[in-house]
Amino acid sequence: MKTWTVASAGLLGVALGLAVGAGTSRAARPQDQQAQKPAYTLPEYNAYKAADGEQNPQQKVKMLDAFVQQYPNSALLPFIYRDHYLTDYALKNFSGTIEYADRMIALGEKVDTQGRLEASVARAQAFYVGSGADKALQTPDAQTKARDAAIQGLKTLDDWKKPDPMAADQYDQQKKGFTVMFNSIAAMTSNTLKDYPAAAKYYKIVLAADATDAVSHFRLGVVDLQLNPPQANEGFWELARSIGLKSPNGPNEQQVKTYLRNQLLRYQQTSCDKLVDDQMNELLTLAASSAERPATLNVPSAADLEKARNDVGNFIPALKGGGDAGKTMWLATCGLEFPDVGVRAMEDPNVQGDTITMKVFRPAAQDADAASKELQAATESNMEVKIAGQPEAGRIKKDDQFRFTGTLVGYAQNPFMLTWDKAKVNAEDLPAEEKAAPAKKGPPKKAPAKKAPGD
């Protein structure tokens, strides 16, 4: 069985951005194939020569179509198909490129490995460039075919041997480029088809070949967060890494930051937006200085935060201890309103207009006896409470014990201090208003003596 042989080493160029390159291979001319009698007629050969030599691309496509219609079983079809998909690509007819690249690949062993690889490269590049605007390439069927073709392209690439005229370093570089391209197409289409595990697998292969591919870092991050359950630590790291690389060909930095922040909010559902910003900035700082995700990186989920909120007995101990437990507890509780927080006033209130600030102490112990002893033994405050719109709270004095309801807004680990805002003291715990002492009465005045009649 005769095969279509590519004489030169240059395939369609593959840049990192997957744009088609200028250099293309040239097929061996039919008359050069073998000295034996050709498997085509002279009219077939002349029709091929005329179409191949046509310089006007629109006219060339018409001539190539006419050849296929007139000679549907011609031995020259590999040359016709190749001319067709290259011309279609030049005309930005990406669907046409894909159609005739597929026809070339479908010829199987009638085309040699390098010829099938070149057609696979052309197909992948046409799909990459054209699928964004061509709705026909966005259907599940088209996406599935593109993924299957990319996977087949990888198998063909495994069979591709270095052509003799090609330098070894050029061969290695092209093979790496083709590996990135086929896996990128397989990853993109898997993502569109919602096969997220497969998409993650292909993007990881891309990044193993080129760890500086910022776009693939971003796309892998998106996929990781789509997995069930989400691979949050990996996903948020990949998003941050796509920014940290500072690649001129990377995704838009501000758009990635907005996406990263929104995903953190959705994943954690915390009440303090500032903490989301702090986490994002920490991620970006780490990703800008390291190519590897730190083993200690942990982004707690909404479920983790809910568990921490329910661990009432560990509220103050976790915050005082810091570390991951303290971080999780703070994320879980910041911005929440707590009812009836029992405390002891460590100072007289500081009244500034309508706002009353109080330094208080809250025991960490949950056992009533232990908490009472801790409360009495305290010498320094561990909470600052701001009360507004409750002037009667100013009657509280040092060492008074009371309950308040307020919103937790601030936390410092060392020295340990929690800050509360919009607080109200439980009315039952307010000291009674002191009444003014009644004015003293003087001795009663004597009535004047009555005069006797006639006096």
Fold-level CATH name of the domain at 1-191: Serine Threonine Protein Phosphatase 5, Tetratricopeptide repeat
Q: Gap between N and C termini, in Å?
A: 164 Å
Low-confidence stretches: 1-28, 451-455
Give the number of helices.
16
CATH architecture of the domain at 1-191: Alpha Horseshoe
CATH class of the domain at 1-191: Mainly Alpha
Strand content: 5-15%
Which structural class is indicated by helix and strand composition? Answer: alpha+beta
Question: Over all CA atoms, what is the radius of gyration?
Answer: 39 Å
What is the number of E strands? 6
Sheet with the most strands: spatial strand order: 1-3-4-6-5
Order of helices and strands: HHHHHHHHHHHHHHHEEEHEEE
The description of the largest β-sheet is:
5 strands, mixed, barrel
Give the overall shape. rod-shaped
CATH level 4 superfamily of the domain at 1-191: Tetratricopeptide repeat domain
- What share of residues is helical? 40-55%
**Overall pLDDT, averaged?**
89
Oligomer: single chain
Q: What does this protein look like?
A:
There is one protein chain. This protein is an alpha+beta fold and 455 residues long. Among the domains are: 1-191, Alpha Horseshoe (Serine Threonine Protein Phosphatase 5, Tetratricopeptide repeat), CATH 1.25.40.10; 302-333, no CATH class; 337-429, OB fold (Dihydrolipoamide Acetyltransferase, E2P) (Beta Barrel), CATH 2.40.50. The protein has 16 helices and six strands. The protein has helices at residues 42-53, 57-70, 77-90, 94-106, 113-130, 140-159, 168-192, 196-209, 214-226, 232-244, 253-268, 273-289, 302-310, 315-321, 323-333, 368-377; strands spanning 337-345, 350-352, 355-361, 383-388, 401-412, 417-425. A hairpin with a 4-residue loop joins strand 5 (401-412) and strand 6 (417-425). Helix 6 packs antiparallel against helix 7 (168-192). It is rod-shaped, with a radius of gyration of 39 Å. It starts with 41 loop residues before the first helix and ends in a 30-residue tail after the last strand. The model is unreliable at 1-28 and 451-455 (pLDDT under 50).
